Every structure is written in C-alpha cells, then in structure tokens.
Amino acid sequence: MVSSFEFTTAGRILFGDGKVGEIGSIAKSLGDRALVVCGNNLSRAEPVMQFLRQSGCAVTNFAISGEPEIALVQRGAELAREKKCDVVVGIGGGSALDAAKAIAALATNTRDIFDYLEVIGKAQSLTAPPLPVIAVPTTAGTGSEVTRNAVLVSKEHRVKVSLRSPDMLPCVAIIDPELTRELPASLTASTGMDALTQLIEPFVSVRANSMTDSFCREAIPRATRALPRAFASGGDAEARRDMALASLFGGMALANAGLGAVHGFAAPIGGMFSVPHGAICASLLADVMEMNWCAAERSAGETIARYEEVARLLTGRSVARAQDGVALVRELCAALRIPRLREFGIQHQDLIGIAEKAAQSSSMKGNPVVLRHEELVEVLERAW
C-alpha cells in the first residue's frame, strides 16, 4: 500500500436512468459545434444527436468500426479541425469513448502522433489542452468515461498502446444504465468481465490506495451478483444499474491505481488478433490471479492477503482462501460461456511472442509481483 496518493476523475459525473436527456444543455455550455464519435450503429447515437441539435449545437458525426486504429483517430482529428468543432461527444463502448478522447487530444496537439504514444512512441506530454469531451457509455465494462487514456491499435506494430494525459479526462461523464439494456448477452458477458477485472487488478496493484480500495470493495460483490443476472435477462433494470456502477467504479480505480498482468496480456493480444478486449480479460483473469498468488509466496508484501480479501468479496464468505476466488471466477466464466484463447484463432506457437510483448506493456508495471518469462508463458498455456 502507498502512504500518499493523488486521485483524479472526470470533472463531472451524472449517473442514473434517463440522465442522457441532460446532454444537450451540458454540451451547449461547453461549445457550439459538436463532433459526435460513435460506433457503426448510428441509431444508438441518434437520440443523443437530437438532444444536441435541440440545444442549438451543430452536429458532425464520426463513426468508427471496431477498435480505434491510429490512422482512424488521426482522420477524426482532421475532421474536428475542418468543422471547427469545439466539443467532442463520445457515445458507445470503450472503443468509441477512447476514440473520442484521442480525437479531442489530437485536434489541438498536431505533432506526429508517435511523439505522444506509449511503448511504440516517445510518450511525450501534450502541449495544448484537448477539446472538452462528454463521454456517454452504452456498455458496462471499460470505465473509459473516467480514465485519462485512449487505447489505440497499431496495425504496423501489431499491438495496442495508450495515448495518455491527465488532460484527457472527460469534462463530463454521463452514465445512463438504460442505454445498456439492449446489449446482447455475449457483449454483456465480455464487457462485464472486463469491469470485474478492472476492479480486481487495481485492488491488488502496487499503486492501490485507500480511496481506490473503497471503490473496489463496494463494486466487486455488486458486479459478481449482477453480471449473471444481466447476462440471463438484459431487461433486469437493477442488474444493469449495478453493472453500470461497477464499471464506473472500476474506471475510477484503474485510472488512479493502475492495472496488472491481465491487461498486460490484453494489449499485445488485441493488437495481434481480432479478439474482443473483454473476452481476453475474462479468459485470462483466473489464471493470472492464480499465478500472482503463487508467485507472491516468494516475496514479501501483502499480495496473498489482498487475494484472500478478493476471494471474500467475490464469494460473500467471511472466510475464504485465494483459491476460492480463483474458483469462483472460473465458474463465472463457464456460466457466461467465455471462450478459451484458442477459440479466437490464437495458435500455440504465438504464446511466446505474446509473453515477450506483454512484459513490455505499461499495465504490467502495476502487477503486484514481477512475473518471470516462464510464468507469463505458463499463464497463456493454461488459458489457451
């Protein structure tokens, strides 16, 4: 545990059913010309665009397909400058929200994007404030509405990397659980497991602190109870609200305490293969938890105690071992029909290369123990 910390999040958070109806007046207070970044299903974004138009904002739409690639967000930034947009609205899953944050940053920071990118670039700081961003998630998983980075795909390097700055935190996050009710069961499962991962990893992170712990302790049991219900019945309003809140809390936790090996693996896998991010996290979570717990026995610290508390939070038992938490995650993945890595087209010979790239990932810096190369490969072997 750290003895001092800093906590940052979105400038304003609105949570609750129907809250998206307030977006028009909020956007108008920030600008007159909005760039709306959304997924390919424009019907999901049309009500938001209508609210914006009714408030007097001019609207330009920018749709993305799949996870945001570097060239795509560069085109979005060019469009924002061309249309003289002064506010960016992201509506959709994590890909749309990350694209919106990246576009807002690149619209005002016009140097080569590799000057700003982590891992494959120079990771230099932004020199100009990004355009203000309003983030409206339609999934309950990524927490991107309250994080300070955008995850982008580099096809050239076959890896996912972050564009990161404290200035990239959205000005306003609007979390309306009603927007998640039509999410298909498979996406409910993968995004929900991403949310759970983003609560467990910050809780055991080397950067965990008392404030992020409070979010994780509240939301881990909530997500564990709600996710199977939301998966079984998308119209379960209470389960959808619980998952939306868990996702929000996970976003706030990871933005301030970091992540770990699950996301360390997800970065190269997502860059090398067309695999949903949440599904990667789900397929790896139990094996990473188990490996971290085993590896922690060789080092000093409170990692084992942390995983035992995770187990209590997951199972609802007053006494639980770390193995009990691992077992519950495996049971949850089975109930949600989470595929194994091989089912995504990942070949056994790919595992060593994935492990090598994962070791360089920024998320690995938060892992509670330093995993050796052979341990990284073993995690992949078990999940494969």
Task: Please name the defining characteristics of this protein.
Dehydroquinate synthase-like, alpha domain, Rossmann fold, 384 residues, globular, two-stranded antiparallel sheet, alpha/beta, six-stranded parallel sheet, 2 domains
Description:
This protein is of the alpha/beta class and 384 residues long. The chain folds into 2 domains: 12-179, Rossmann fold (3-Layer(aba) Sandwich); 182-383, Dehydroquinate synthase-like - alpha domain (Dehydroquinate synthase-like, alpha domain). It is 50% helix and 11% strand. It contains 13 helices and 8 strands. A 6-stranded parallel beta sheet has the order 1-8-5-4-2-3, sandwiched between helices. Strands 6-7 form a two-stranded antiparallel sheet. The longest helix is centred in the middle third of the chain and has 23 residues, at 210-232. It starts with 11 loop residues before the first strand and ends with a helix.
| Rg, nearest Å | 20 Å
Total count of helical runs of at least 4 residues:
13
Uncertain regions spanning at least 5 consecutive residues: none
Quaternary status: single chain
How confident overall, as mean pLDDT?
95
Please tell me the total number of domains: 2
Shape, principal axes of CA atoms: globular
Strand content: 5-15%
- Estimated helix fraction: 40-55%
What is the second-level CATH architecture of the largest domain? Up-down Bundle
Quickly give the structural class: alpha/beta
Q: How would you sum up the major sheet?
A: 6 strands, parallel
CATH fold field value of the largest domain: Dehydroquinate synthase-like, alpha domain
CATH class of the largest domain: Mainly Alpha
